Amino acid sequence: MKKMKIKNIYSLTPLQEGMLFHHLQDPSEGNYIVQNILEIQGNLNIEFLEKSLKNIQNRHDILRTVFKFDKIDNPMQIVFYDQKCPFYFKDLTHLEHPKEYIYKENRNERKNGFDLKRSPAFKMKVYQTSELNYFIVFSFHHIILDGWCLGTLFSELFRLYKSFLNDQPLTLPKVCQFSEYLKWLKNQDVLEAKNYWASQFKQIVPTPLIDHHEKDKEFREHSIFLNEYQSEELNQLAKKNHFTVNSLFQAIWSVILSAIVDEDSVVFGQVFNNRPTEIPDIDTALGLFINTIPVRVDLLDHQTFVSICSNIQNQFSQTEKYAFLSLSDIKQNTGAQNSLFDHIFVFENYPLDEEMKKDFKNELGFKVVDSNSIEQSHYHFGIVVIPHHPIRIDFMFSVKLEKVLEIQRYFETVIDEILLNPGCSVSELKAQLDIDTRPVKNETDYEKAPSPSSTPMNSRPLSRIEKRLATIWKELLGVSQIHPDDNFFQLGGDSLLVVKLVSRAKKYQLELTVKECMENPTLEAMAKRSNTIKGKTKIDADDGVTFVTPIQQYHLDLEIKDFHRFGICTLVKVLVPLDKEALERATGYIYQHHDALRLCTQLTNDKWSQVIKDPADNIPFSYWHVNEDNPSTFIESKVIELQDSLVLSQGPLFHIGYFHLNDKDGRLFLLFHHLGCDQISWDIILEDFWYAYSQYEKSLQASPPPKAETYQSYTTYLKKLAQSKKVTDQVPHWTHSDRYRIKPFPVDKQGDFTGKSERVLDITLEKEAVICLEKKITGKFDTQIANGILAALLLTMKNWTGHSIQGIILENHGRESEIDIQRTVGWLSYRYPMIFNLENIDNYFDALMLVIETIKNLPQKGLGYGLLRYLNDDPEILSTMKNIPEPFITFNYRGAGLKSSVPDIFDLAPEKVDDWKFKKVVYPHQLYLHCEIFEHELAMHWEYSANLHHQNTIKCLANQCIEVLRDFSLQKDDIKMVTSV
Q1: How far apart, in whole angstroms, are the C-alpha atoms of residue 402 and residue 400?
Q2: Are the beta carbons of 747 and 949 closer than 8 angstroms?
Q3: Between 785-801 and 951-970, two packed helices, what is the crossing angle to 10 degrees?
Q4: What would the pLDDT profile of 706-765 be if each residue is shown by its tens digit?
Q5: What stretches of 166-304 show up as alpha helix (H) in DSSP?
Q6: Cβ atoms of 673 and 646 closer than 8 Å
Q7: 303 with 426: CB under 8 angstroms?
Q8: Distance (Å, rounded) from C-alpha 184 to C-alpha 405?
Q9: Which of 162, 235, 430, 967 lies 20 to 30 angstroms, CA to CA, from 406?
């Protein structure tokens, strides 16, 4: 990003650092994703609501903040002057069960999380479920906001909404930015705080609540509500004895925890709201002002419950001054070898609750009829007390439910006892609980290991990778000697240092993840988990003769008239200005690094040949400063010129163009010919391109990314493989007699499948069914979901044609190879025919078993077919293979949809771009089906020819195929299910 777009750059607060660490450790876990859900009844103006949210985003810097943590030692948060407001609306009035849809969408939202590096870490989604009923879902990552901010945010939101509704100007009070709190933090006396915490936790032993055997992967919530009498009496008890309800419930939990772990001193984590009153207008600020601090409670058997509450209250008044210190610093100064606690306690008296109780009906035209909050942390257990009337206690957990229900019973017992007798003692309360006390030891987090000084050291010499890691450890930990069995965390490492460790490891050509470091904390174990980054220290250009691959030859043989226009292209609207020089250098970077982009293809004496040219100085990049009255017309004309500019016999096979409109608007056009780029290559190219651009924009050098085999060496490998006995022995497999029994499909009219006659019918299978399919097919049958779709397709085709022998052309991405081609750019996919004999098969289970068994016996996953047909040097083999009739339908499963490598600085361009369809080409197939799964929804795209089939015919086939899959997903017994076709 250009510096003029950046408003400020700051370091992170201690808790932000902790949350970032857990985000990097496992982003898919959904930790610290918070959702507030409001149900609205009445009239809601969506436009005004979105406008109000945008005003709030402009008002508060934290809502325009992203986080930078790659390749730097200390993570930073960057505030931009402007960012897109993430607001979305969806009409669900047509659904029978809209609340189920919202529930599933919210769950996916939490799982997917936020891209903290690129986008604001919040979004608002509005769902309309009926004419006068709406759900507002405000989701955010905890790293930017705490729960206490929500009252301020929604208060401003509704005030702004009212002003737009009534067309009246509104001046909100001066706002305090989160940066003021960051400045305050820097001015605190850290040394004094460290000394305080050291004095508080002398000779304390951590009291783990959760045994590792009790942990569960699924994160859930469970709530209990006290009755009106209990709620009122507890409030009165706290008021009478001059302590807070928060202190009262901490005392209840301290007694229960002490009884469970059989310790007189217990420690648990407390979420503390730290808004310093000395900061002007601090109550107007949005940000993360909370911190997690340890609470230590000492209990004596004769001590009364009321005295425990008072002690906790007094301790809090002393602790409050030092609650800003990071948890890692607190731990370091307590001398604890392991974590001080494994669960947290939260007293959730959010101002949002009061805001939602207001009656907006007369002012805004709607009312809030219900509100709910969903939150997940990395702790396996959390207690949240919500002081509504009545009081509610939420248990947030990823442990076995039996453990939670047990703790619930303890809460109910203690509350009943203290309401009967406030003067009861600790021993009396514990006796009422009647817990079979046992020490709880967590073998992962709380294993009592000897201190580093007393551990017998392995004196063997360090390996090469261990030496690299040891160098990094010394830099981060400030120690002079590292041994193979040293533990990173026992030497003083913490979560933030792990993030730095992973970043610095890349500089030493080592690949590690945060999770791998956490699970393998010794030097020896960490070295075993690390991978050496493969690659070369400089970019070397590959040139010379290469071979035409089978997939290229197949398309070249189709004699497409405008083959130079066959490829992948996109035109995007740029939301921030891009640097011309950096764009041109990034274009040259991928041009030089990926040799397939320099292919030259030509026809000589009726034979196609290819060479890779040297990277020339004329980089395929164009730049226009557009001053036209009608810029869209100019852009569209230039895009067509670029599409027609590729000359296959001369290369290169791509072009990048940038249209600068003004300081806030532009267009970027990316054009790559299919001969040098498949879909996986497209992602690799974009990743490398944006990496190089980001480096050059900052006047830095772009190092070459890990480089696999060149495209030239890949084609040479294929050519040699085609002559090998391993492949030539496959000829009998590909010439089996069943291949000659394939019959054409029934047609509605006579004709050919031409580019001009091509039509597409799209159909989807809902998420619920797909999730069930994935569990059954991949779990119970241990096979890919593509094979499950293929089985349904075979049954459908047999029912339609009446033929038992069914042939299908399958397409493979081609990346599963004996050589390293995971990051090789080129057209690496291949196609091959499969024959299935469905005689006596009329149900899905048998069809699936047939597919699994047939594919299991497929040699080399079908690669040999194209090698024998196009690259083998034996004329007899070539002749035999070319006479094999190919099936009339092609099936391609594209896999699960992935997020694009393109950063979130783009939007759809309004200009039209030619889709590169070939009108005059005649295809050899009659049907083409390609499928993909995105967010657990299966999309099937049926391509057919209007010269051969009516739309209703294809629609009937598509529906039958979908129904086979849907029926199987709902079937409880997987054996011998009779389908509906």
Answers
A1: 5
A2: yes
A3: 130
A4: 556 889 989 999 999 999 999 999 999 999 888 888 888 899 999 888 888 889 999 999
A5: 178-186, 190-200, 228-240, 245-261
A6: yes
A7: yes
A8: 43
A9: 235
φ and ψ at 749, to 5 degrees?
Answer: -160, 160
| Predicted local distance difference test score (pLDDT) of residue 949 | 93
Pairing of strands 665-673, 654-662: antiparallel
pLDDT at 455: 36
Sheet hosting strand 6-11, strand order edge to edge: 6-11, 76-80, 65-68
Contact (Cβ atoms closer than 8 angstroms) between residue 885 and residue 739: yes
Distance CA 273, CA 318 (A): 15
315: CB partners within 8 A, 6+ apart? 295, 296
Would you call 79 helix, strand, or coil by DSSP? Answer: strand
pLDDT less than 70: residues of the chain: 1-4, 28-30, 203, 335-338, 351-359, 361, 436-460, 492-497, 499-500, 503, 506-509, 532-544, 617, 704-708, 779, 895-905, 914-920, 972-981
Residue 340: predicted pLDDT: 82
Give 663-688 pLDDT, tens digit per residue: 778 899 999 999 999 888 888 888 88
Please count the CA atoms within 13 angstroms of the CA of 260 that sit on its side-chain side. Answer: 23
429 backbone dihedrals φ, ψ, rounded to 5°: -65, -45
* 3-class SS shares of the chain: helix, strand, coil, % to 5: 40, 20, 35
| Distances 416 to 233, 244, 254, 422, 432 between C-alpha atoms, Å | 11, 19, 16, 10, 10
Compute CA 443 distance to the chain's CA centroid, rounded to the nearest angstrom.
Answer: 30
Q: Coil, helix or strand for 320?
A: helix
Identify the DSSP state of 390: S
Beta bridge partners of 601: 610
pLDDT value of residue 844: 92
Which among 414, 230, 450, 430 has a CA at the least distance from the CA of 338? 450
CA-CA distance, 833 to 865, in Å (whole number)? 8
Closest CA to 675 of 546, 798, 521: 546
Give the integer Cα–Cα distance in Å for 424 and 875: 98
Q: Is the dihedral of CA 306, 309, 315, 320 positive or negative?
A: negative
pLDDT score of 440: 42
Q: How far is CA 400 from CA 76, 213, 218, 343, in A?
A: 38, 9, 9, 15
* Cβ neighbours for 679, distance < 8 A, ≥ 6 positions apart: 568, 813, 894
Burial level of 228, CB count in 10 A (0-12/13-18/19+)?
A: exposed
- Pair 835, 848: CB distance under 8 Å: no
Could you identify the residue written with the tokens 């008890």?
237
Decide the pairing of beta strands 33-42 and 133-141.
antiparallel
Supply the pLDDT for residue 558.
Answer: 84
pLDDT at 537: 32
Tell the residue number behind the tokens 């980001």, with chain if given: 694
Q: Which residues make Cβ contacts (< 8 Å) with residue 937, sequence separation at least 6?
A: 764, 765, 766, 767, 770
Who's near 356: CB < 8 A, 6+ residues apart?
38, 154, 368, 371
CA distance 521 to 527: 10
Point out which residues pair with 293 in neighbouring strands. 270
Which residue, 94, 97, 90, is CA-closest to 127? 90
What is the Cα–Cα distance from 938 to 789, expressed in whole angstroms?
10
Q: Can you list the positions of beta strands (E) in 741-783?
A: 753-754, 758-765
> Which amino acid is residue 7, in one-letter code?
K
- DSSP letter at 91 equals E
Distance (Å, whole) CA 250 – CA 411: 11
User: How many Cβ atoms are within 10 Å of 604's Cβ, its own excluded?
Assistant: 8
Q: Which helix (H) or strand (E) holds 923?
A: strand 922-923
| Sequential DSSP letters for 284-295 | G--S--EEEEEE
Helix (H, G, I), strand (E, B) or coil at 220: strand
- Asked whether the beta carbons of 788 and 777 are under 8 A apart, the reply is yes
